[in-house]
Sequence to fold (649 residues):
Amino acid sequence: MLRFLVRRIFQGAIVMLLVTIAVFYLFFHGSPEAVARRLAGRQATQELVDRIYHNLGLDQPFWVQYWHFLERLVRGDLGTDYYNGVPVTTVLKESVPVTASLALGAAVIWLILGVSSGVYSSVRARSLTDRAFTGIALFFYSIPVFVLGLALIYVFFYELTTHGVHWFPATGYVGITESPYRWFQHLVLPWLSLALISAAVYTRLSRTSMLEVLGEDYVRTARAKGLSERRVVLRHGLRSALTPIVTQFGIDVAVALGGAILTENIFGLPGLGWESLHAINNQDLPLIVGIVIVAAAAVVVANILVDMLYAVLDPRVRLH
Amino acid sequence: MTQGVGDALVAGRAEAPPEFDGSVAAASRQIVGRSPFYLAFSRLRRDRAAIISFWVIVAIVLIAIIAPVFATITGHGVNHQYRGVEALSPAGQPHAPSSKFWFGTDDQGRDILVRVAYGARISLIIGIGATAITIIVGVLVGLIAGYFGGIVDTIIARIVDVVLSIPYLLFAIALVSVLGHINLWVVMIVIAAFGWASVGRIIRGQVLSIREREYIEAARSLGAGDWRIIFHDILPNVIAPAIVFSTLLLPVSIVAEAALSFLGVGVQPPTADWGQMISASQQYIDSGVAWWYLFFPGIALVITTLAFNILGDGVRDAFDPRSDRLFAK
Fold:
């Protein structure tokens, strides 16, 4: 177990190093001078541009800059953002809670909706309800999140508001510590647009996985022992059917934690996805690297957790 | 091996069935060899939802091809900005669907019907192009990693890990901004730059088991080189999963194209594009001014992806009747 963890963390660290190198490479392959020029203002002299370029350390070779970045990283310093001079860690501290609220809330909804409808479908396979669930799932799976998000704003914000119901604001974010109720209110529509689409994946996945498991010998044994159908389905069936669901869930949550660029931008949520779009448009290297590190770390950690969960869920799995 | 024995048995029975009486009816029942592709195709033909989706896709392709006809019938050029109360409200806002503009107009007084028809072109070209690049690269990488193994496999596996753990959309946007000038090729390559990794990983898994088969050993002992074995003996065995992947990847690529345009890093205006139209409609959504501006390109996008998803589902079932995992990776 310990060896497994050490090996996986080591592998994860290598992957993250490669990811940051990729970011640096992309940045310097573009035009780092443009950053200095933009910072210098419109009527800047070439000397000023050169001085800013030098002060940011952009005139040093690629590998030297990357080395400085690593040195700072070890000390937990991600540098400061080019435009506002704010430490990147501060920006991350503000935007991570927003993204986490969005991702985790949506994850709870899609997991409940998806798995319950999938399990129900598998128990009543080929029934009318099964077909309806499958059809609805395929429909939501085919809707791009930006179409669904805008449609939700139109229906639940515009239509309701014109009829005097002010339940959902269209955009914006309120911290949970500030007002839990308004936090919830601002997040309902973003949660739904992320969750309805993802739930579709889980409906299909859990239906397939359950159908496979319910045909296994040990499920027949459980039935033969006279266990209630409920116990057979939930305790014997669902437990091992959860393995592929957990895999998918780990990846999806990790990806959402890295910033839901589309959803955050539609609903004006100042999370990682929102910040990253601005950072890229401004070529704000320290901020881009910071966000990418958080996003990649989420994926790496989720993969390790998923592998560990396998062993808990399925006694046949051994970690090595 | 068992497969070969089975074939021989079937063939033997076909040649000399014990109850063969020489009649025409019996002769016509002779067993005909059916390729897996033929079997898959005949299974697909019985899938009603898939067939309907297929015809919907044909219709969308036709609309894309004859897009100029829409411009001729309505008399509205795709980029022509109409002024006047029929096209723009006095406040300069889009005009609702009317007898002149069936789908309404956009924020610049252009005909949305004509632009939706032209938008189908971009969606299909980039969707199909990006999918083709993704599959070709993914299959090649999977073949090489799986066949050669060892250090080659390890290096490729790490690269795949990196590609799969970076935030896709973030890198796509960054890649576009670095590449600068955006054209159809850039968008296709950016979309393909991330999809190949998961295709590669799965093809590699298939190759690992195929390369241990006897016929590979036979080919090698006959003196076949590595590349001949890869392309002549292994590749045909991964064609079926590649086809299934292509149909499932198509809607993903189409949505990716629309998403890039939505974020302003896809094909550039004034090219008519669904993602761009949806993006431009955003400013009117909270005020409810122009529902048609979101609705028509949005529904076009949803119908297209839905049709491809249902067809893809059918194709997968047809190639592997036991599997039912559209969403599993």
The two ends of chain A are 7 Å apart (CA to CA). Residues 136 and 200 of chain A are 8 Å apart (CA to CA). Chain A has a mean pLDDT of 86. Residues 2-74 of chain A form one domain.
